[in-house]
Amino acid sequence: LLRYIYIICIFFSMIACSDKDEPLIGRWEMPVEMDGEKFSYVIELNSTERTYEPFNDLNGRKSYGFMNFSNLRRIYQYDIDSIASLGNGLFVVKTVDSNNQVFDPSLAISIDTLRLNADNRQLVYQSDWVFNYINPETVSTPKDSPEKNEPFGSTWKDKLLIIWGIIFLVIIYYLAKILLGYVLSTLLAGAIGAAAGGLILWLLMGGFDLDLPRWLIITIMSVTTVPMALFGLWSAILSTKDLAKAPLASRLAHEIMKENKKGGYIVDEYGNKSKIRKTERGILGEKYIETEDGKHYEGGWGSDEVRENE
User: Fold this and answer.
1) β 306-308/296-299 pair status
2) CA 281 to CA 107: how far, in whole Å?
3) pLDDT at site 230
4) What is the four-CA torsion angle of 204, 209, 212, 218, rounded to 10 degrees?
5) Using CA atoms in the order 176, 181, 184, 185, what is the torsion angle rounded to 10 degrees?
6) Which end of the chain is more exposed for a tag (fewer CB within 10 A), N or C?
7) With the CA atoms of 68, 43, 144 and 156 taken in that order, what torsion angle do they form, in degrees rounded to the nearest 10?
8) Across the chain, where does the E strand assignment appear?
9) Whole-number mean pLDDT of the chain?
10) Each residue of 246-272: pLDDT tens digit?
11) Other CB atoms within 10 Å distance of the CB of residue 107
12) What local confidence, expressed as pLDDT, does residue 274 receive?
């Protein structure tokens, strides 16, 4: 069982690791100073859908956002026409440049990269322009697009968490059985040793009428009890595999849920008897009785009265 669970876990782990990065939604700014004037370059986008009115002509489409690198001398406004995740926080974007679109359409389209730092939420353009203090509230999202709250278990990460939870419970179950076996074996062997030590003391003090000092009594009991307890523990350790295979839960559930008692009768209000063929018990102690004539009865816990199930 553990082998199959591990295989399933590895499978889902591989799928979960292949998930794409989280979407880029927000506004990033980089402070710039030119000719004594301070301003900011801006990147604002929503990678999940086209929600921005483009500054350039995108053949009637809206854009995913924009990159504004305008300075005091010239306007540099780029519309983000497409964006894709490459994993590990790296995104590739296709932008349209308004300046080149007018004079040379072949140079209007360019491919750039954006990298999101998961630790400080910085966005790096190309390789050296660092944009800070993300502001998701400024994103232009449609009012008719409500936020979607996905239920637990609908994502691969939730499924992976469930699988790891099952594995954890299985491991705890087997460890509990093994530790219980160790404890019971140690106590049983120690009890046998203690009984042997008590028998020796009874023979010495009762049979031979010896007045033994306390330290000798403790020594005799220790010599007979401790080695036996250690022997019991060692025997249990050698039987770890058998302890793990012991059907503790299934046997306990079987004893609680079912008892195959034969014999006895069901007597109705008119004195008619029906021989009981099988009796089962539920978790709460309720009884389910089947008679030889094919009828079924149900009774509550602690009561001898039953009623027939139609």
Assistant:
1) antiparallel
2) 81
3) 92
4) 40
5) -150
6) C
7) 150
8) 25-34, 37-46, 65-68, 77-87, 90-97, 109-116, 123-125, 129-131, 258-259, 265-267, 273-281, 287-291, 296-299, 306-308
9) 76
10) 766 555 555 545 544 455 778 777 778
11) 11
12) 83
Residues whose CB is less than 8 angstroms from the CB of residue 64 and which lie 6 or more positions away in sequence, other chains included: 45, 46, 47, 49, 50, 51, 52, 80, 81, 82, 83, 93
In 184-200, which positions are buried (b, 16+ CB within 10 angstroms) versus exposed (e)? ebbeebbebbbebbeee
Dig out the tokens for 243 from the structure: 């302890």
**Alpha helices, H only, 122-213:** 156-201
pLDDT tens string 98-111: 665 555 556 677 78
Q: pLDDT (tens digit, 9 = 90+) per residue, 124-136?
A: 887 788 888 766 4
Distance, in Å, from the CA atom of 83 to the CA atom of 62, rounded to the nearest integer, reads 13
- Burial string for 61-73 (b: 16+ CB within 10 Å, else e) reads eebbbbbebeeee
Length of the chain equals 310
Residue 78's contacts (CB-CB under 8 Å, 6 or more residues apart) are 66, 67, 68, 69, 95, 96, 97, 98, 110
Nearest-angstrom CA–CA distance, 231 and 246? 21
The position carrying tokens 């530790």 is 179
pTM of structure: 0.39
Three-state DSSP state, 111: strand
